[in-house]
Amino acid sequence: MTGGDMAAPPALDRRAVVLEIMRGRRDLLVVASLGSPTYDLAAAGDHERNFYLWGAMGGATTFGLGLALAQPEVPVLVLVGDGECLMGLGALATIAVQRPANLSVVVLDNGLYGETGAQRSHTSGGLTDLAQVARACGIAETMRIETEAQVKELAERVGRLGAGPLVAVVRIGGEEKPRCIPSRDGVALKARMRRALGLDSM
Amino acid sequence: MTTFVAGDSETVEQPRASWPREIYDVLRSMDVTIAAYVPDGGHAELIQRLHDDPAVTAVPLTTEEEGVALVSGAWIGGRRGVLLMQSSGVGNCVNMLSLVKTCRFPLLALVTMRGEWGEFNPWQVPMGSATQQALELMDVKVFRASDPSEVAPTVEAATRMAFLGGTPVAVLLSQKLIGAKVFTK
């Protein structure tokens, strides 16, 4: 950051952001992309309505879209990092066409590929602006989250249906957190979420 | 320089085939209500029918791998989806198929073939030649239909294996079935 950004508030703590969003969860279904978002979600407390991805990079948001289309009355949250979002940018356009009122995508943006050695991503220094990208794709409701008050607003919004899909970009710090490692058993996680929805495991 | 423009249809050589409608009937009878696709001329009629059906959610994708994740997410939420694409799109799906394999999601993909029968465009040939192997490398079961009479029973068998047996399945629809794309000056 340069001297011109002196007025910007300090970057948010990713774990505190995710914890605040999860704290009041009711029927919310959550999909987390591989790497830190999965650890953040697990750190906020494991839940039968959590689905952790350990691969399939670039696919988290369209996985969430499929889930949102299948459960239109249930709020669905996809938690992704900036790297994951960048790999599946086209998915924002695909979501915009479907306009699911129950889908929120929260991008935890630190401008870094944290899992692989903290290389700078395309959003580093504010270059690629994912909220603007989402808006340009046709996502009507976008948020830029930089303060704790805005996090509270976001937490309230993702728990309910909106007028359409939401993409919120949260500016988080780049520090690495202790890993909180949930199950890597995809079959079990899949069966668990289906059972939580009253569906057969297969 | 010679300029070519594509004909207004990719199936101009043949009278209107009945198999696209038969695929639609099979899908609907098996309660498939999400259809994710990257357009292909060979799938044009089926895509239109799916869009025209208010009980079906038709989802245009920007790339085929989105569809692999999308139909998996739909299935975890209790809806059956189909993924429609051209053979070139199979290459785009390869890593995303690890989601299907690791979590044992069912998959039903209907793939129209290019690059194998009277193909005008050599750029279609490499992926068309590798389509079946690419799917099999990722443990997707592959069926093929080359005659119009085979299409509906093959798609029905694949749909059963996918959603009743939990097996990832792709049906390759031969270019012979569709006809080579005709380019006219």
TrEMBL record, chain A:
Alphabetized UniProt keyword annotations: Decarboxylase, Lyase
A GO biological-process term: small molecule metabolic process
Any coiled-coil regions, as ranges: none
Pfam families documented for this protein: TPP_enzyme_C
Domain Thiamine pyrophosphate enzyme TPP-binding residues, every copy: 52-158
Taxonomy, superkingdom: Bacteria
Gene Ontology molecular functions: carboxy-lyase activity; thiamine pyrophosphate binding
Protein's name in the database: Thiamine pyrophosphate-dependent acetolactate synthase large subunit-like protein
Organism in which the protein naturally occurs: Muricoccus pecuniae
Lineage, highest ranks first: Bacteria, Pseudomonadati, Pseudomonadota, Alphaproteobacteria, Acetobacterales
TrEMBL record, chain B:
Alphabetic keyword roster: Decarboxylase, Lyase, Pyruvate
Superkingdom to which the source organism belongs: Bacteria
Molecular function via GO: carboxy-lyase activity
Protein's UniProt name: Sulfopyruvate decarboxylase alpha subunit
